[in-house]
TrEMBL record:
Keywords assigned by UniProt, alphabetized: Membrane, Signal
UniProt-listed InterPro entries: OmpA-like, OmpA-like_sf, PBP_domain, Phosphate_ABC_transporter
Pfam families: OmpA, PBP_like_2
Protein's UniProt name: Phosphate ABC transporter substrate-binding protein, PhoT family
Coiled coil (UniProt feature): none
Keyword Signal on entry: yes
Protein's organism: Phaeobacter piscinae
Residues in the signal sequence: 1-23
All residue ranges annotated as the OmpA-like domain in the record: 398-518
Tree of life domain: Bacteria
PANTHER family reported for this sequence: PERIPLASMIC PHOSPHATE BINDING COMPONENT OF PHOSPHATE ABC TRANSPORTER, PHOSPHATE-BINDING PROTEIN PSTS
Length: 518
Protein backbone atom coordinates (compact mmCIF):
# COMPACT_ATOMS: atom_id res chain seq x y z
CA UNK A 1 0.00 0.00 0.00
CA UNK A 2 1.49 3.33 -1.07
CA UNK A 3 1.20 5.74 1.81
CA UNK A 4 4.01 8.30 1.88
CA UNK A 5 7.50 8.46 0.45
CA UNK A 6 8.58 10.42 3.48
CA UNK A 7 8.50 7.67 6.09
CA UNK A 8 8.87 10.22 8.85
CA UNK A 9 5.24 11.23 8.39
CA UNK A 10 3.89 7.84 9.44
CA UNK A 11 6.51 7.54 12.16
CA UNK A 12 5.46 10.81 13.74
CA UNK A 13 1.83 9.76 13.85
CA UNK A 14 2.60 6.30 15.21
CA UNK A 15 4.64 7.81 18.03
CA UNK A 16 2.39 10.71 19.01
CA UNK A 17 -1.07 9.52 18.01
CA UNK A 18 -3.68 11.81 16.50
CA UNK A 19 -4.59 14.81 18.63
CA UNK A 20 -7.59 17.12 18.28
CA UNK A 21 -6.85 19.74 15.63
CA UNK A 22 -8.29 23.09 14.74
CA UNK A 23 -9.88 23.64 11.34
CA UNK A 24 -7.11 23.80 8.75
CA UNK A 25 -6.81 24.11 4.99
CA UNK A 26 -6.42 20.43 4.10
CA UNK A 27 -6.48 16.91 5.45
CA UNK A 28 -4.41 14.25 3.68
CA UNK A 29 -5.57 10.68 4.31
CA UNK A 30 -4.10 7.29 3.49
CA UNK A 31 -6.40 4.95 1.51
CA UNK A 32 -7.34 2.91 4.59
CA UNK A 33 -7.90 6.03 6.70
CA UNK A 34 -5.37 4.88 9.29
CA UNK A 35 -3.14 7.95 8.88
CA UNK A 36 -4.21 11.55 8.50
CA UNK A 37 -2.22 14.75 8.22
CA UNK A 38 -3.95 18.06 8.76
CA UNK A 39 -2.38 21.43 8.15
CA UNK A 40 -1.98 24.48 5.99
CA UNK A 41 -1.04 23.65 2.43
CA UNK A 42 2.11 25.47 1.32
CA UNK A 43 2.30 24.18 -2.22
CA UNK A 44 1.59 21.40 -4.68
CA UNK A 45 3.88 20.63 -7.62
CA UNK A 46 1.59 18.20 -9.45
CA UNK A 47 3.10 15.25 -7.58
CA UNK A 48 3.83 16.26 -3.98
CA UNK A 49 2.02 18.30 -1.35
CA UNK A 50 3.93 20.59 1.02
CA UNK A 51 1.99 21.00 4.24
CA UNK A 52 2.74 23.06 7.35
CA UNK A 53 1.70 20.85 10.27
CA UNK A 54 2.20 20.86 14.02
CA UNK A 55 5.16 18.56 13.34
CA UNK A 56 6.74 21.07 10.97
CA UNK A 57 6.76 21.25 7.19
CA UNK A 58 6.15 17.86 5.56
CA UNK A 59 6.37 16.75 1.92
CA UNK A 60 3.81 14.09 1.00
CA UNK A 61 3.49 11.98 -2.16
CA UNK A 62 0.12 12.86 -3.70
CA UNK A 63 -0.28 9.40 -5.27
CA UNK A 64 -0.66 7.79 -1.85
CA UNK A 65 -3.21 10.10 -0.25
CA UNK A 66 -6.55 11.74 -0.80
CA UNK A 67 -6.98 15.45 -0.09
CA UNK A 68 -10.00 17.04 1.56
CA UNK A 69 -10.58 20.66 2.45
CA UNK A 70 -10.87 24.10 0.85
CA UNK A 71 -7.13 24.30 0.12
CA UNK A 72 -6.99 21.13 -1.97
CA UNK A 73 -5.78 21.74 -5.55
CA UNK A 74 -7.44 20.26 -8.61
CA UNK A 75 -5.31 17.36 -9.82
CA UNK A 76 -6.75 17.35 -13.33
CA UNK A 77 -6.47 21.11 -13.87
CA UNK A 78 -3.13 21.61 -12.11
CA UNK A 79 -1.10 24.52 -13.48
CA UNK A 80 2.61 24.69 -12.68
CA UNK A 81 3.33 28.19 -11.37
CA UNK A 82 6.98 29.32 -11.56
CA UNK A 83 8.10 32.82 -10.64
CA UNK A 84 11.44 34.24 -11.77
CA UNK A 85 12.90 37.49 -10.47
CA UNK A 86 16.05 39.43 -11.27
CA UNK A 87 18.14 40.41 -14.26
CA UNK A 88 16.38 42.21 -17.08
CA UNK A 89 19.05 41.00 -19.54
CA UNK A 90 18.12 37.39 -18.87
CA UNK A 91 14.38 38.05 -18.66
CA UNK A 92 14.02 40.05 -21.88
CA UNK A 93 15.67 37.68 -24.36
CA UNK A 94 17.43 34.60 -23.03
CA UNK A 95 14.84 32.86 -20.87
CA UNK A 96 11.87 33.54 -23.19
CA UNK A 97 13.91 32.01 -26.03
CA UNK A 98 14.61 28.94 -23.89
CA UNK A 99 10.95 28.62 -22.90
CA UNK A 100 10.00 28.75 -26.58
CA UNK A 101 12.54 26.01 -27.34
CA UNK A 102 11.28 23.88 -24.45
CA UNK A 103 7.68 24.34 -25.59
CA UNK A 104 8.48 23.38 -29.17
CA UNK A 105 10.26 20.22 -28.03
CA UNK A 106 7.41 19.16 -25.74
CA UNK A 107 4.41 20.04 -27.90
CA UNK A 108 3.21 23.11 -25.98
CA UNK A 109 1.94 26.34 -27.44
CA UNK A 110 3.05 29.62 -25.85
CA UNK A 111 1.46 32.93 -25.01
CA UNK A 112 3.04 36.05 -23.56
CA UNK A 113 0.81 38.11 -21.27
CA UNK A 114 2.01 41.58 -20.24
CA UNK A 115 1.82 42.67 -16.60
CA UNK A 116 2.38 46.08 -14.98
CA UNK A 117 5.87 47.61 -14.66
CA UNK A 118 7.38 45.69 -17.60
CA UNK A 119 6.70 42.34 -15.94
CA UNK A 120 5.10 39.54 -17.93
CA UNK A 121 3.84 35.95 -17.87
CA UNK A 122 4.93 33.25 -20.31
CA UNK A 123 2.12 30.69 -20.51
CA UNK A 124 2.46 27.13 -21.82
CA UNK A 125 -0.72 25.72 -23.33
CA UNK A 126 -1.61 22.09 -24.02
CA UNK A 127 -3.07 21.14 -27.42
CA UNK A 128 -6.52 21.30 -25.81
CA UNK A 129 -5.93 24.96 -24.99
CA UNK A 130 -5.69 24.33 -21.24
CA UNK A 131 -2.89 26.08 -19.36
CA UNK A 132 -0.08 23.70 -18.35
CA UNK A 133 2.35 26.17 -16.80
CA UNK A 134 2.80 29.84 -16.12
CA UNK A 135 6.28 31.38 -15.91
CA UNK A 136 5.92 34.77 -14.19
CA UNK A 137 8.80 37.18 -14.80
CA UNK A 138 9.47 40.01 -12.34
CA UNK A 139 11.99 42.12 -14.22
CA UNK A 140 14.33 44.21 -12.07
CA UNK A 141 17.96 43.47 -11.20
CA UNK A 142 20.07 40.89 -9.45
CA UNK A 143 19.78 42.53 -6.02
CA UNK A 144 15.98 42.47 -6.19
CA UNK A 145 16.01 38.88 -7.41
CA UNK A 146 17.92 37.65 -4.36
CA UNK A 147 15.71 39.76 -2.06
CA UNK A 148 12.59 38.15 -3.56
CA UNK A 149 13.99 34.64 -3.15
CA UNK A 150 14.98 35.27 0.49
CA UNK A 151 11.48 36.65 1.13
CA UNK A 152 9.95 33.50 -0.45
CA UNK A 153 8.40 35.67 -3.17
CA UNK A 154 10.24 34.06 -6.10
CA UNK A 155 11.15 30.52 -7.10
CA UNK A 156 14.19 31.28 -9.25
CA UNK A 157 16.69 34.15 -9.25
CA UNK A 158 18.10 35.41 -12.57
CA UNK A 159 21.54 36.77 -11.66
CA UNK A 160 24.42 38.31 -13.59
CA UNK A 161 26.80 37.73 -10.70
CA UNK A 162 27.51 35.08 -8.10
CA UNK A 163 25.67 35.31 -4.81
CA UNK A 164 27.51 37.50 -2.30
CA UNK A 165 28.62 36.36 1.13
CA UNK A 166 25.99 38.44 2.98
CA UNK A 167 23.19 37.04 0.80
CA UNK A 168 24.56 33.54 1.21
CA UNK A 169 24.57 33.95 5.00
CA UNK A 170 21.02 35.32 5.06
CA UNK A 171 19.90 32.34 3.00
CA UNK A 172 21.47 29.99 5.55
CA UNK A 173 19.76 31.85 8.40
CA UNK A 174 16.43 31.52 6.56
CA UNK A 175 16.85 27.74 6.39
CA UNK A 176 17.67 27.67 2.67
CA UNK A 177 21.03 25.92 3.06
CA UNK A 178 24.08 26.65 0.91
CA UNK A 179 22.98 28.58 -2.17
CA UNK A 180 26.25 27.75 -3.97
CA UNK A 181 25.65 24.00 -3.81
CA UNK A 182 25.49 21.91 -6.97
CA UNK A 183 21.69 21.65 -6.86
CA UNK A 184 21.06 25.24 -5.81
CA UNK A 185 22.91 27.26 -8.42
CA UNK A 186 23.86 26.72 -12.01
CA UNK A 187 25.38 28.66 -14.86
CA UNK A 188 22.73 29.06 -17.55
CA UNK A 189 24.85 30.80 -20.18
CA UNK A 190 27.97 32.92 -20.45
CA UNK A 191 28.40 36.61 -21.02
CA UNK A 192 31.18 39.16 -20.64
CA UNK A 193 31.66 42.81 -19.79
CA UNK A 194 33.08 44.58 -22.82
CA UNK A 195 34.21 48.18 -23.29
CA UNK A 196 32.36 49.71 -26.24
CA UNK A 197 32.70 52.95 -28.22
CA UNK A 198 31.11 54.53 -31.27
CA UNK A 199 32.23 53.12 -34.63
CA UNK A 200 33.97 56.42 -35.46
CA UNK A 201 36.06 56.56 -32.30
CA UNK A 202 39.76 56.17 -33.26
CA UNK A 203 40.71 54.26 -30.08
CA UNK A 204 40.93 50.51 -30.78
CA UNK A 205 42.14 49.06 -27.47
CA UNK A 206 42.38 49.86 -23.78
CA UNK A 207 44.30 48.32 -20.90
CA UNK A 208 42.42 46.95 -17.93
CA UNK A 209 44.36 49.38 -15.71
CA UNK A 210 43.24 52.34 -17.86
CA UNK A 211 39.67 51.07 -17.85
CA UNK A 212 39.74 50.99 -14.06
CA UNK A 213 41.28 54.48 -14.16
CA UNK A 214 38.34 55.79 -16.20
CA UNK A 215 35.88 54.21 -13.78
CA UNK A 216 37.61 55.72 -10.75
CA UNK A 217 37.89 59.18 -12.33
CA UNK A 218 41.69 59.17 -12.58
CA UNK A 219 41.47 59.24 -16.39
CA UNK A 220 38.94 61.65 -17.84
CA UNK A 221 40.15 62.65 -21.32
CA UNK A 222 40.40 60.60 -24.51
CA UNK A 223 43.88 62.03 -25.16
CA UNK A 224 45.12 59.96 -22.21
CA UNK A 225 44.02 56.85 -24.10
CA UNK A 226 45.46 57.82 -27.48
CA UNK A 227 42.32 59.54 -28.74
CA UNK A 228 41.23 63.14 -29.34
CA UNK A 229 41.40 65.93 -26.76
CA UNK A 230 37.85 65.49 -25.47
CA UNK A 231 36.28 64.50 -22.15
CA UNK A 232 35.21 60.88 -21.74
CA UNK A 233 31.48 60.39 -21.28
CA UNK A 234 31.05 57.18 -19.29
CA UNK A 235 27.99 54.91 -19.56
CA UNK A 236 27.29 52.01 -17.18
CA UNK A 237 24.38 49.73 -16.27
CA UNK A 238 22.13 50.82 -13.42
CA UNK A 239 23.83 50.46 -10.03
CA UNK A 240 21.70 47.56 -8.73
CA UNK A 241 22.25 45.34 -11.74
CA UNK A 242 24.46 42.28 -11.50
CA UNK A 243 26.58 43.47 -14.40
CA UNK A 244 27.28 46.81 -12.70
CA UNK A 245 28.22 45.05 -9.48
CA UNK A 246 30.46 42.64 -11.35
CA UNK A 247 32.19 45.64 -12.96
CA UNK A 248 33.00 47.11 -9.55
CA UNK A 249 34.18 43.75 -8.24
CA UNK A 250 36.40 42.88 -11.18
CA UNK A 251 37.91 46.30 -11.89
CA UNK A 252 38.31 47.48 -8.31
CA UNK A 253 37.02 50.98 -9.02
CA UNK A 254 35.38 52.09 -5.75
CA UNK A 255 35.01 55.75 -6.70
CA UNK A 256 32.44 55.32 -9.48
CA UNK A 257 29.88 57.29 -7.49
CA UNK A 258 32.21 60.32 -7.46
CA UNK A 259 32.14 60.73 -11.26
CA UNK A 260 29.08 63.01 -11.10
CA UNK A 261 27.64 64.26 -14.37
CA UNK A 262 30.29 62.46 -16.44
CA UNK A 263 28.52 59.18 -15.65
CA UNK A 264 25.19 58.05 -17.05
CA UNK A 265 23.39 54.93 -15.84
CA UNK A 266 21.03 52.85 -17.99
CA UNK A 267 18.44 50.34 -16.82
CA UNK A 268 18.58 48.48 -20.14
CA UNK A 269 21.75 47.28 -21.85
CA UNK A 270 20.25 47.88 -25.28
CA UNK A 271 19.70 51.56 -24.39
CA UNK A 272 23.27 51.93 -23.15
CA UNK A 273 24.75 50.54 -26.36
CA UNK A 274 22.47 52.63 -28.57
CA UNK A 275 23.51 55.85 -26.82
CA UNK A 276 27.23 54.99 -26.92
CA UNK A 277 27.08 54.09 -30.63
CA UNK A 278 25.87 57.61 -31.49
CA UNK A 279 28.30 59.56 -29.25
CA UNK A 280 31.92 59.75 -30.54
CA UNK A 281 33.21 60.65 -27.07
CA UNK A 282 31.33 57.97 -25.11
CA UNK A 283 32.80 54.89 -23.45
CA UNK A 284 30.47 52.19 -22.13
CA UNK A 285 30.71 48.86 -20.39
CA UNK A 286 28.08 46.54 -21.79
CA UNK A 287 27.05 42.94 -22.13
CA UNK A 288 28.84 41.04 -24.92
CA UNK A 289 25.41 39.86 -26.10
CA UNK A 290 24.15 43.43 -26.53
CA UNK A 291 26.95 45.23 -28.39
CA UNK A 292 24.83 45.82 -31.52
CA UNK A 293 26.37 48.59 -33.68
CA UNK A 294 28.88 49.75 -31.05
CA UNK A 295 32.53 48.72 -31.50
CA UNK A 296 34.17 46.53 -28.87
CA UNK A 297 37.63 47.58 -27.64
CA UNK A 298 40.37 44.98 -27.29
CA UNK A 299 41.86 44.63 -23.82
CA UNK A 300 45.63 44.97 -23.71
CA UNK A 301 48.26 44.62 -21.01
CA UNK A 302 51.51 46.40 -20.23
CA UNK A 303 53.52 43.36 -21.38
CA UNK A 304 52.06 43.52 -24.89
CA UNK A 305 49.48 40.72 -24.66
CA UNK A 306 45.99 41.53 -25.90
CA UNK A 307 42.67 39.77 -25.42
CA UNK A 308 39.50 40.27 -27.42
CA UNK A 309 36.07 39.09 -26.37
CA UNK A 310 34.68 36.38 -28.61
CA UNK A 311 32.76 33.17 -28.09
CA UNK A 312 35.81 31.02 -27.53
CA UNK A 313 37.71 33.39 -25.23
CA UNK A 314 34.59 33.78 -23.07
CA UNK A 315 33.97 30.03 -22.92
CA UNK A 316 37.52 29.35 -21.82
CA UNK A 317 37.54 32.35 -19.43
CA UNK A 318 40.70 33.52 -21.19
CA UNK A 319 38.93 36.87 -21.57
CA UNK A 320 39.25 38.34 -18.06
CA UNK A 321 35.90 40.11 -17.70
CA UNK A 322 33.65 37.09 -18.13
CA UNK A 323 30.21 37.27 -16.50
CA UNK A 324 28.40 33.92 -16.13
CA UNK A 325 24.61 34.12 -16.07
CA UNK A 326 23.23 32.26 -13.05
CA UNK A 327 20.00 30.66 -11.98
CA UNK A 328 19.61 30.25 -8.20
CA UNK A 329 17.00 27.79 -6.99
CA UNK A 330 15.12 27.37 -3.71
CA UNK A 331 15.55 24.45 -1.32
CA UNK A 332 11.91 23.47 -1.83
CA UNK A 333 10.82 21.17 -4.60
CA UNK A 334 9.71 22.89 -7.81
CA UNK A 335 6.82 21.61 -9.98
CA UNK A 336 7.71 18.73 -12.27
CA UNK A 337 7.33 20.86 -15.40
CA UNK A 338 9.76 23.39 -13.93
CA UNK A 339 12.23 20.59 -13.18
CA UNK A 340 11.84 19.33 -16.75
CA UNK A 341 12.59 22.83 -18.02
CA UNK A 342 15.72 23.09 -15.86
CA UNK A 343 16.90 19.74 -17.23
CA UNK A 344 16.26 20.95 -20.77
CA UNK A 345 18.35 24.13 -20.38
CA UNK A 346 21.43 21.99 -19.69
CA UNK A 347 21.00 19.87 -22.81
CA UNK A 348 22.45 20.25 -26.30
CA UNK A 349 19.21 21.62 -27.77
CA UNK A 350 19.21 24.51 -25.31
CA UNK A 351 22.84 25.34 -26.12
CA UNK A 352 21.82 25.99 -29.72
CA UNK A 353 18.99 28.28 -28.53
CA UNK A 354 21.39 30.17 -26.24
CA UNK A 355 23.82 30.72 -29.08
CA UNK A 356 21.14 31.89 -31.50
CA UNK A 357 19.87 34.35 -28.88
CA UNK A 358 23.27 36.06 -28.95
CA UNK A 359 24.73 34.64 -25.75
CA UNK A 360 27.65 32.26 -25.26
CA UNK A 361 26.61 28.65 -24.78
CA UNK A 362 28.48 26.01 -22.78
CA UNK A 363 28.76 23.32 -25.44
CA UNK A 364 32.47 22.36 -25.61
CA UNK A 365 34.39 23.25 -28.73
CA UNK A 366 37.81 22.04 -29.84
CA UNK A 367 40.68 24.36 -30.68
CA UNK A 368 43.52 22.84 -32.67
CA UNK A 369 47.15 23.66 -31.95
CA UNK A 370 47.41 25.23 -35.40
CA UNK A 371 45.10 28.14 -34.51
CA UNK A 372 46.84 28.94 -31.23
CA UNK A 373 49.77 30.79 -32.69
CA UNK A 374 49.15 33.91 -30.57
CA UNK A 375 49.33 31.90 -27.38
CA UNK A 376 52.57 30.24 -28.38
CA UNK A 377 54.02 33.58 -29.51
CA UNK A 378 53.12 35.07 -26.12
CA UNK A 379 54.82 32.14 -24.41
CA UNK A 380 58.01 32.69 -26.38
CA UNK A 381 57.89 36.44 -25.68
CA UNK A 382 57.39 35.95 -21.95
CA UNK A 383 59.93 33.14 -21.55
CA UNK A 384 62.89 33.93 -19.33
CA UNK A 385 65.65 32.17 -17.52
CA UNK A 386 63.16 30.07 -15.51
CA UNK A 387 61.22 28.95 -18.60
CA UNK A 388 63.93 27.78 -21.00
CA UNK A 389 63.40 26.72 -24.59
CA UNK A 390 63.46 23.07 -23.48
CA UNK A 391 60.32 23.62 -21.37
CA UNK A 392 58.43 25.13 -24.31
CA UNK A 393 59.57 22.24 -26.49
CA UNK A 394 58.28 19.82 -23.85
CA UNK A 395 54.92 21.60 -23.88
CA UNK A 396 54.57 21.49 -27.67
CA UNK A 397 55.70 17.86 -27.80
CA UNK A 398 53.19 16.76 -25.13
CA UNK A 399 50.25 18.58 -26.70
CA UNK A 400 51.11 17.77 -30.31
CA UNK A 401 48.19 16.02 -32.00
CA UNK A 402 45.73 17.07 -29.28
CA UNK A 403 43.01 19.71 -29.38
CA UNK A 404 42.16 22.06 -26.57
CA UNK A 405 38.58 22.00 -25.30
CA UNK A 406 36.92 25.30 -24.47
CA UNK A 407 36.10 23.66 -21.12
CA UNK A 408 38.62 25.27 -18.74
CA UNK A 409 38.89 25.55 -14.98
CA UNK A 410 39.91 28.52 -12.88
CA UNK A 411 39.82 29.14 -9.16
CA UNK A 412 38.40 31.60 -6.68
CA UNK A 413 40.94 34.25 -5.59
CA UNK A 414 43.25 32.91 -2.88
CA UNK A 415 41.57 29.49 -2.99
CA UNK A 416 41.87 26.05 -4.54
CA UNK A 417 38.07 25.96 -4.96
CA UNK A 418 36.99 26.19 -8.63
CA UNK A 419 35.07 29.36 -9.45
CA UNK A 420 31.39 29.31 -10.35
CA UNK A 421 31.84 28.77 -14.08
CA UNK A 422 34.40 26.04 -13.45
CA UNK A 423 32.06 24.21 -11.07
CA UNK A 424 29.52 24.20 -13.88
CA UNK A 425 32.22 22.95 -16.27
CA UNK A 426 32.98 20.04 -13.92
CA UNK A 427 29.34 18.97 -14.14
CA UNK A 428 29.22 19.39 -17.92
CA UNK A 429 32.39 17.38 -18.52
CA UNK A 430 31.26 14.67 -16.10
CA UNK A 431 27.97 14.32 -17.97
CA UNK A 432 29.83 14.04 -21.27
CA UNK A 433 31.94 11.23 -19.80
CA UNK A 434 28.79 9.48 -18.59
CA UNK A 435 27.29 9.78 -22.07
CA UNK A 436 30.37 8.19 -23.63
CA UNK A 437 31.41 11.30 -25.56
CA UNK A 438 35.10 10.57 -24.87
CA UNK A 439 35.11 6.78 -25.15
CA UNK A 440 38.31 5.52 -26.83
CA UNK A 441 39.85 8.98 -26.51
CA UNK A 442 42.60 10.52 -24.44
CA UNK A 443 41.79 13.40 -22.07
CA UNK A 444 44.67 15.39 -20.60
CA UNK A 445 44.14 17.83 -17.71
CA UNK A 446 46.91 20.40 -18.09
CA UNK A 447 47.78 22.72 -15.21
CA UNK A 448 49.24 26.22 -15.54
CA UNK A 449 50.18 28.88 -13.00
CA UNK A 450 51.08 32.52 -12.74
CA UNK A 451 54.73 33.59 -12.63
CA UNK A 452 54.85 34.49 -8.94
CA UNK A 453 57.63 32.43 -7.34
CA UNK A 454 60.17 29.95 -8.67
CA UNK A 455 59.27 28.01 -11.81
CA UNK A 456 59.74 24.62 -10.15
CA UNK A 457 57.27 25.51 -7.39
CA UNK A 458 54.78 26.82 -9.93
CA UNK A 459 54.93 23.56 -11.88
CA UNK A 460 54.22 21.65 -8.68
CA UNK A 461 51.23 23.89 -7.88
CA UNK A 462 49.93 23.52 -11.43
CA UNK A 463 50.21 19.74 -11.16
CA UNK A 464 48.20 19.71 -7.91
CA UNK A 465 45.47 21.81 -9.55
CA UNK A 466 45.33 19.46 -12.54
CA UNK A 467 45.02 16.50 -10.17
CA UNK A 468 42.29 18.22 -8.16
CA UNK A 469 40.19 19.04 -11.24
CA UNK A 470 40.65 15.54 -12.66
CA UNK A 471 39.54 14.00 -9.36
CA UNK A 472 36.50 16.33 -9.15
CA UNK A 473 35.37 15.40 -12.66
CA UNK A 474 35.83 11.68 -12.01
CA UNK A 475 33.88 11.93 -8.74
CA UNK A 476 31.03 13.74 -10.52
CA UNK A 477 30.92 11.18 -13.37
CA UNK A 478 29.32 8.54 -11.17
CA UNK A 479 27.91 6.33 -13.95
CA UNK A 480 30.76 6.72 -16.47
CA UNK A 481 32.81 3.73 -17.54
CA UNK A 482 36.20 5.39 -17.13
CA UNK A 483 38.04 2.34 -18.45
CA UNK A 484 36.97 3.48 -21.91
CA UNK A 485 38.76 6.82 -21.61
CA UNK A 486 42.47 7.40 -21.08
CA UNK A 487 42.75 10.22 -18.55
CA UNK A 488 46.14 11.85 -17.97
CA UNK A 489 47.50 14.94 -16.24
CA UNK A 490 50.36 17.28 -17.12
CA UNK A 491 51.67 20.61 -15.85
CA UNK A 492 53.74 23.41 -17.34
CA UNK A 493 53.55 26.08 -14.62
CA UNK A 494 54.11 29.57 -15.95
CA UNK A 495 55.20 28.45 -19.44
CA UNK A 496 52.03 29.51 -21.32
CA UNK A 497 50.69 32.81 -19.92
CA UNK A 498 47.41 34.17 -21.22
CA UNK A 499 47.64 37.69 -19.78
CA UNK A 500 50.07 40.21 -18.33
CA UNK A 501 50.70 39.83 -14.62
CA UNK A 502 51.08 43.47 -13.63
CA UNK A 503 47.48 43.31 -12.34
CA UNK A 504 45.61 40.83 -10.14
CA UNK A 505 43.21 39.87 -12.96
CA UNK A 506 46.13 38.82 -15.19
CA UNK A 507 47.53 36.47 -12.57
CA UNK A 508 44.04 35.09 -12.03
CA UNK A 509 43.62 34.36 -15.75
CA UNK A 510 46.96 32.53 -15.87
CA UNK A 511 46.11 30.20 -12.96
CA UNK A 512 44.07 27.58 -14.80
CA UNK A 513 43.60 23.96 -15.81
CA UNK A 514 42.91 23.24 -19.47
CA UNK A 515 41.52 20.06 -21.00
CA UNK A 516 43.07 18.64 -24.15
CA UNK A 517 41.66 15.72 -26.13
CA UNK A 518 42.97 13.31 -28.74
Amino acid sequence: MALFRAAICAALFLVTGILPLKAQDVTLSSPDGAVEITGNILGFDGEFYRVDTKFGELTVDGSGVSCEGPGCPSLSDFVAEISLSGSSTMAEVLLPALIEGFALRNGFQTRRDPMPENNFDYVLLRDTGRVAARFSFFVSNTDEGFADLLANEADIVMALREIRSAERERAREAGMGDMTGAQRSRVLALDAMVPVVAPGNPVRSISVADLAGVLSGNLSNWSELGGPNAPISLHLPVAGSGLAQAISDRLEAPNIAALGTRLRRHDRGSTLVRVVATDPFALGLASFAETSTARVLTLRGACGFSLRANRRSIKTEDYPLTAPMFLYLPSRRLPKLARDFLSYVRGPGAQIVIRRAGFVDQAPERISMNVQGDRLANAITAAGSEVPLEELQRLVSRLDGLQRLTTSFRFEPGSTRPDAQSRSNITQLARSLEAGAYDARELVFVGFSDGDGPASGNRAIAMKRAEAVRDAVIAAAETANLERTEIEIAAFGEALPMACEDQRWGRQVNRRVEVWVR
